[in-house]
């Protein structure tokens, strides 16, 4: 009852309602782009490598700008950063249906837009991370995050199928116009928030050495904790595997399962991945409290290569979709378990820097995995690419078994 009351309390705040609306609309638009963009690139180029590059492009900017964006976002006007990021993303996405209507759209144009919106997300994410506590206060953070996560989860489950229908109906290029519109709506909602996005007045910009020192402190803490260091290491290989798998879903659907890129069924694979992620997120808190963090991660990483081998070798769509769902659940447990451990073991004054640093390292595997798998699929076939993804998952499992995770005494609670 108390949780329900807290949820209602945050929604009484107009600022949070607008923030919630903006984030939810943006997530819905991104879900459409997540299906439409790889379909568009594959339809134009028939190249698995370019298709994987379009997926890698949404993550790669985090590796380039993540550390700096996290440090800068706390030193400048967060509202300005958020609105600029949303405006640039909307313009970039709108250029695709515009180019399509003029008959000048190329695969490289689409890949460039993927990189652009990925870059915008880095800066948006860094500013929004600090804006939420300023809008709802410390006591409202759990309820606010829960509301945002629940909405995002429902969208992740439902919208890949919606996106599949949209892509089949009007084509992937024009479907991307829906995401451009979503960014416009999100920016209008964010711009309507009257409250400050910072708890304290924005300070004047500090020297580069100050930012470098902040970054170095977070890196040092992460490196000196063996448990967190090893969790970050397996997180890197886990994202390496995820990048290889998710970047080529449209190629896998077309070449292995025989699902046409113009079929509404194309969204079923993304839906399976989303549902698996939701199940993993729901299962994790229910695992026995006496199980250590390391054991939970080892268990999920051990299952992953088994189900990925099934994905790589089957031609049955039902079996493939089920196996992808199980894999996604395992990957989600690995990710969330690592995040929870960092939150419990990191001092409050280092939370932002340590978590941003760990997320950068972990996400670093995604574009690498996507590009490697894309090159392999282009030179051989999609089955070989997914067998390599299975090998990545096996390496992650072996590393987990011989790392500090095996002897970690920290219970999951």
UniProtKB/TrEMBL annotation:
Q: Identify the keywords attached in UniProt to this record, alphabetized.
A: Cell membrane, Membrane, Transmembrane, Transmembrane helix, Transport
Quote the InterPro entries the UniProt record gives: MFS_trans_sf, TM_effector
Residue ranges crossing the lipid bilayer per the database entry: 20-41, 53-73, 80-99, 111-136, 148-174, 180-206, 227-253, 265-284, 291-311, 317-339, 360-378, 384-405
Q: Which Pfam families match?
A: MFS_3
- Keyword Membrane listed? The answer is yes
Please give the CDD domains that the UniProt record associates with this protein.
MFS_MefA_like
Q: List locations, semicolon-separated.
A: Cell membrane
This chain's protein is named MFS transporter
Origin species = Rhodococcus globerulus
Organism phylogeny: Bacteria, Bacillati, Actinomycetota, Actinomycetes, Mycobacteriales
């Amino acid at each position: 009852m108390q949780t329900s009351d807290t949820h209602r309390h945050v929604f009484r705040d107009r600022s949070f309602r607008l923030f919630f609306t903006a984030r939810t609309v943006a997530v819905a638009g991104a879900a459409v782009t997540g299906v439409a963009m790889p379909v568009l690139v594959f339809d134009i180029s028939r190249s698995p490598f370019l298709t994987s590059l379009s997926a890698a492009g949404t993550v790669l900017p985090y590796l380039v700008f993540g550390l700096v964006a996290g440090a800068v976002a706390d030193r400048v006007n967060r509202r300005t950063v958020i609105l600029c990021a949303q405006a640039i993303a909307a313009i970039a996405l709108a250029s695709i249906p515009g180019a399509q209507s003029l008959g000048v759209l190329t695969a490289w144009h689409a890949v460039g837009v993927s990189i652009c919106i990925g870059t915008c997300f880095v800066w948006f994410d860094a500013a929004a991370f600090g804006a939420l506590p300023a809008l709802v206060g410390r006591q409202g953070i759990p309820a606010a995050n829960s509301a945002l996560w629940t909405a995002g989860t429902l969208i992740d489950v439902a919208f890949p199928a919606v996106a599949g229908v949209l892509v089949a109906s009007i084509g992937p290029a024009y479907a991307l116009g829906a995401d451009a519109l979503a960014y416009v709506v999100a920016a209008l909602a964010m711009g309507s928030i009257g409250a400050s996005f910072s708890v304290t007045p924005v300070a004047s910009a500090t020297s580069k050495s100050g930012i470098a020192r902040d970054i170095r402190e977070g890196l040092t803490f992460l490196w000196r904790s063996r448990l967190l260091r090893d969790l970050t290491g397996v997180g890197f290989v886990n994202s390496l595997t995820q990048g290889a798998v998710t970047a080529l879903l449209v190629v896998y659907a077309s070449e292995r399962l025989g699902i046409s890129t113009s079929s509404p069924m194309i969204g079923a694979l993304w839906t399976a991945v989303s549902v698996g992620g939701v199940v993993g997120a729901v299962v994790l808190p229910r695992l026995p409290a006496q199980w250590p963090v390391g054991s939970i991660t080892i268990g999920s990483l051990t299952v992953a290569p088994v189900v990925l081998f099934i994905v790589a070798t089957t031609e049955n769509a039902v079996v493939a979709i089920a196996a992808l769902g199980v894999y996604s659940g395992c990957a989600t447990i690995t990710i969330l378990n690592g995040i929870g451990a960092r939150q419990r073991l990191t001092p409050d004054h280092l939370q932002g820097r340590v978590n941003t640093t760990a997320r950068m390292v972990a996400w670093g595997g995604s574009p690498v995995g996507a590009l490697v798998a894309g090159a392999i699929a282009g030179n051989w076939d999609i089955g070989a690419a997914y067998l390599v993804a299975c090998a990545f998952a096996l390496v992650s499992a072996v590393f987990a078994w011989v790392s500090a995770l095996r002897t970690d005494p920290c219970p999951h609670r």
